[in-house]
Amino acid sequence: MLRLLQDQRVRFLAVGATNTLVGYLIFSAFTLWVFADVYLGYLLSLALSYVVGISLAFVLYRRFVFVVHGHVLRDFARFVSVYLVAIGINAAALPLLVEIVQVPPLLAQLIILVVTTLLSFFGHKKFSFRRNGSE
Questions:
Q1: Residue 73 C-beta-side C-alpha neighbours within 13 Å
Q2: Are 103 and 111 in contact (CB under 8 A)?
Q3: DSSP at 133
Q4: In a 3-state reduction of DSSP, which class is residue 6?
Q5: How many CB atoms lie within 10 A of CB 20?
Q6: DSSP letter assigned to residue 67
Q7: What average pLDDT does the segment 62-72 reach?
Q8: Are 35 and 26 in contact (CB under 8 A)?
Q9: Burial of residue 91 (number of CB atoms within 10 Å: 0-12, 13-18, 19+)
């Protein structure tokens, strides 16, 4: 088990799963209870869940997955930029799946999460938390 946890990809998936679950629960709660009667309320839910998700993910990825030190503000700016790409994809795909393909919002969000999770791993590894040999 310890050997498995030494694999960065496994740690990424574990932290990502935790973060995704928290974000999805927040998205679901807002979609079902707060913005249930609001036209395109699921997009408001998406924005709020991303704010919480980005904050939580930054701390967890930085500390447990990529284990980097220093450059907090630079890392956070890069981290957010990777998430902006992900939320852009999400914001475009979610209404497409919900309004045109008629997929329920909660299922549509699950489908999109698979794509954005893969994109995020490579974005964070190669950009957000990338270090030169001297850092």
A1: 0
A2: yes
A3: T
A4: coil
A5: 20
A6: -
A7: 91
A8: no
A9: middle
Longest dimension (CA), the chain: 54
Q: Residue 78: which pLDDT band, with cuts at 50, 70 and 90? A: very high
Average pLDDT, the chain: 89
26 vs 115: which has the higher pLDDT: 26
> What single letter denotes the amino acid at residue 84?
L
User: Considering only CA atoms, which of 102, 86, 106 is closest in space to residue 41?
Assistant: 106
Classify the phi-psi angles of 68: left when phi > 0, otherwise alpha if psi is within -120 to 50, otherwise beta.
Answer: beta
As a whole number, mean pLDDT of residues 17-43 equals 91
State residue 95's pLDDT score.
95
- pTM of this structure: 0.70
Place of tokens 């932290």: 15
